[in-house]
Amino acid sequence: MYEVEQLIGAQWKPAGDNGRFEVVDPADGSPVSSAPTAVGADLDAAVKAARGAAPGWAASTPAVRAAALHLAADAIENAADRIADAQTAEMGKPLAGARAGIQAGVATLRQYAELGPLHGGRTLAGAAEAIDLVTYQPRGVVAVITPWNDPVAVSCGLLGAALVTGNTVVHKPSERTPATGWLLVKLLAEHLPPGVLSLVTGDGAVGAALAGRQVDLVAHVGSTAAGRSIAASCAGTGAKALLENGGSDPLIVDADVDPRWAADQAAIGAFANSGQLCVAVERIYVHRTVADRFLAALVGRCREMRVGPGRDPRSELGPLVDRRHREHVHAQVTAAVADGADVLCGGTVPDGPGAFYPLTVLAGCADDMAVMREETFGPIAPVLVVDSYDEALSRAGRSPYGLAATVLTGSMANAQRAWRELPVGTVKVNAVFGGAPGGAAHPRRASGEGFGYGPELLDEMTVAKAVHIEPPGGPAVRW
């Protein structure tokens, strides 16, 4: 059992006045971690400590801040197995996937450690006797609120970018992975001055209360509902909101692609991390000419993939994060079936312990079904057959979300149309995952606002200041 503590200022504190909450293993229901529920006084103290540490940390050189991140990255890499064990126990991801997420987080910390000292301003062409420049300064106190589905990689990105630009941080990890967040912050905080990084724990109400405090920026990755609540709080306090919310990412299968290869791509996109990814494939539009072969291959791929406990090295996919989330996923499947969808595989809640849910393929889906309209966040592949590429693009673009989209096509003309016309932040052609390091995009609509990745994240964490300097007037001025 992990006994999580909060870090407020420089003090580790075991419990708040609201007591503690418990997380159980989604594979078998056994207790995994116990964490404090922060109260208002905890949040006030954490923000106060961050505010007090802000001037000193902002005045430190970018090289000093970068060196601290490099040391922390080394420590996290050395502790990867221990952190992966906690993550797998708390949210179910197989150990290999948990380790991969931790390595991604380490790489991101190192990326921002390298980019931070290069994040300079620029000079402007003004009058010959004057100096004009634009410089970047830290925003101040940043509240970082992160999700459970990839807790280390996401947290390292936001924490790394905030810290290397000279901000102080109050971090609240998801209540579903508090021990993972605690282990991560322990390793980071060892290399930072007191008060620069604090950790508070608790549920969504704690996150909402933190977002309403007098902080300067709230960086959040999570659900659209939570993101909208945070945006409303920031409108009241004047803080900047940096949000990556939910998504309902489409996959388009064109008429000219190999349906078996397309099914493999769809399986990767829909089922990776048991469908619990912001950029998971949530709805599939397949051309009628390849639909039957695509569906047969996708069902076959489902039956080949092994679902089991995350600690079992044979498991490709683990359980859902908890039974409450499983109820949400199954409710969408049940509603789709009631409205006419056909279950080609899966679709039933299994007996036994844990929060397992089978890989599920639904055919005969319609645009107004929740599985096609909302974020399911589970191992569900809902399929709608279309008669043309135009129809697929049109239907794919009707979502209230705008995070990402994938198009599988053999036509360069259709690929070009996809990235030009789809109203999303990221378009991937012929690969559901992948891309060069440093890519950054703006999510659209209900999916959020602001850059969440890449060098541009450093811009989000800072404020630009224009400076104009002239010599003073009067006689005999030395300048």
TrEMBL record:
CDD domains attached to this UniProt entry: ALDH (cd07078)
The record ties this protein, via SUPFAM superfamilies, to: ALDH-like (SSF53720)
Q: Which UniProt keywords apply?
A: Oxidoreductase
A Pfam family:
Aldedh
Is Oxidoreductase found in the keyword set? yes
Entry EC number(s): 1.2.1.-
Q: Which Gene Ontology molecular-function terms are recorded? A: oxidoreductase activity
> Could you tell me which residue ranges the Aldehyde dehydrogenase domain spans?
16-467
Q: Which InterPro entries match?
A: Ald_DH/histidinol_DH, Ald_DH_C, Ald_DH_N, Aldehyde_DH_dom
Q: Which residues form a coiled coil?
A: none
Q: What is this protein called?
A: Aldehyde dehydrogenase family protein
Which organism's genome codes for this protein?
A: Polymorphospora lycopeni
